[in-house]
Amino acid sequence: MNKNIYFVSSNKRKVDSYRKRLAEIGWNLVNINKTVPECRDFDCENVALDKMKTVREIVQDRPVFVEDSGLEIEELNKFPGSHIKILTEMIGLEKFGEILGSRKVHARFVYAIVFLDTENDIKSFVGDEKGFMWYNDSKNVSDLRDIFCHEMFPNQPLSLLDEVQNSEYEQAWTKKDAMAGLIGFLRDESSCFW
């Protein structure tokens, strides 16, 4: 019998991805489609911890998690961090790419998941994805995946990976991301009070 875990997010792509991965270990993801206000912090884990303060009032006595992600560009002292969505909404992805220029810039996506169990204990899980931001003005930019190259494929934006490459990427990535931390924790039910 599947157990329910609640996820507060309005991001359908994240909901679908997490739902699939949690189902593989016997958990049913119940989405609460809500945008949670975010504090002004560059660190994704701090933002996710702050979100949980709001979420614990919405979802009581049930296992729940929130997530925050960001982009840290090495030569910009980890800017924009958790503010990537605000930045790209203000200036657009194409302009963001132009600012970076045509050279490869070391960057990493950071993902933080904060989980609250039924005993009000909080656990944080953080993962990152290293690679390069690389803007080429000859290509259409509609998603960060169009200008981010994972370290496994340094000359290929994620959006252009073929089926085999994408499968390799997904297999490698899902072993070390923040969700992998939560999944590992949930598998050890002796540490949880359901």
Keywords summarizing the entry:
194 residues; alpha/beta; Maf protein; 7-stranded mixed β-sheet; 27% strand
Structural features, described:
With 194 residues, this protein is an alpha/beta fold. It has a single domain, classed as Maf protein. It contains 6 helices and 7 strands; from the N terminus they run βαβαββααβββαα. The chain has helices spanning 12-23, 44-58, 84-91, 93-100, 163-173, 178-187, and strands at residues 3-8, 27-32, 64-73, 79-81, 105-116, 122-133, 148-150. Strands 1, 2, 3, 4, 5, 6 and 7 form a 7-stranded mixed beta sheet that branches. Helix 1 (12-23) links the parallel strand 1 (3-8) and strand 2. Helix 3 (84-91) crosses helix 4. The longest helix is centred in the N-terminal third of the chain and has 15 residues, at 44-58. The protein is globular, with a radius of gyration of 17 Å. The relative contact order is 0.14. The model has no long low-confidence stretch (mean pLDDT 89).
